[in-house]
Amino acid sequence: MSARRITDRIWLVGSGTDPQAGTDPHDCHAYLLDGGTEAALVDCGTGLAHERLLANIEDTGCLDRLTTILVTHYHADHAGGAAALRAATGAEVRAAPEAVTALAAADEYTTQVAAARTAGIYPADYRLPGCADARPITGGTVLRVGGATVEVHDAPGHCDGHLCLLADIGGERALFSGDAVFAEGRVSIQPIPDCRPHAYARTCRALAELAPDALLPGHGAMAPTGGARHLDQARDHFARLTVPPNLGA
Ligand SMILES: [Zn+2]
């Protein structure tokens, strides 16, 4: 098991599917952004294999410089590892206000962990680990991670409090899209109370404007180059008042 380099300054350090960087089958893709003097983790996996994730971060040489843990949204496959990784590294956890509140309360209803467990998506004994001291970020916030900047974009639709993160390092722009948009313009619409197709369409329109070089989603294929094309596909589907294909469909 080892980290997998995706671009010059970005590594895959956790995944449910990647043969090299895989951590736990229930985990999303977790990325490490190397900003030089500082580094940031984007998404945390479930926490079921946080030690493997830490080992992968160590493998990048960035563990001692990890200052920030960014969480795209409060679903457990992205946010469940936040508490353990914060405890192990001291890095600060940043997420949308909705996610900060839900994680502080280990709220398994708002985050749909209870429903997902019943559906067999998570092991029967899995519980969402609470994270008491995450700090809120919202659209328009610009964070510095060493020599990189990370622009925060509100991206509701898949769930409330979903953020997408646009990193710029040396002019190379990568969009961490969480569960908002995947390769080939796929989306993730689920029958849950805070999945909102109309907001999803607006989100996809706004994300396409960003035209990043790399599209790095929370699941499935990654696009280290030509990322904009995938965002255009999702935008164009919604513009025709049709729903883009779902992830895994
Ligand atoms: Zn999700």
In brief, what are we looking at here?
Residues 27-219 form the Metallo-beta-lactamase domain. The protein has 249 residues and is an alpha/beta fold.
The 3D shape can be described as globular
- State the order of secondary-structure elements, H for helix, E for strand: EEEEHEHHEHHEEEEEHEH
Bound molecules: zinc ion
CATH architecture: 4-Layer Sandwich
Mean pLDDT score: 97
> For the record, what is the CATH homologous superfamily label?
Ribonuclease Z/Hydroxyacylglutathione hydrolase-like
Structural class: alpha/beta
Instruction: Tell me the span between the first and last alpha carbons.
Output: 29 Å
In the CATH hierarchy, the third-tier topology is known as Metallo-beta-lactamase, Chain A
Number of domains: 1
- Under CATH at level 1, the class stands as Alpha Beta
Largest sheet: 7 strands, mixed
Record field, number of beta strands:
12
Strand content: 15-25%
Secondary structure: helix percent: 25-40%
Strand order of the largest sheet: 1-2-3-4-5-6-7
Please count the helical segments: 7
Please give the radius of gyration in angstroms.
16 Å
Topology of this structure?
Elements: E1 4-7, E2 10-14, E3 30-34, E4 39-42, H1 50-60, E5 66-70, H2 76-79, H3 82-89, E6 92-95, H4 97-104, H5 113-118, E7 135-136, E8 142-145, E9 148-154, E10 163-169, E11 172-178, H6 197-210, E12 214-217, H7 227-239
Parallel strand pairs: 4-5, 5-6, 6-7, 11-12
Antiparallel strand pairs: 1-2, 2-3, 3-4, 8-9, 9-10, 10-11
The chain binds zinc ion (ZN).
Zinc ion is lined by residues 73, 75, 158, 179.
Catalytic activity: a beta-lactam + H2O = a substituted beta-amino acid
Subcellular location: Periplasm
Pfam family, one: Lactamase_B
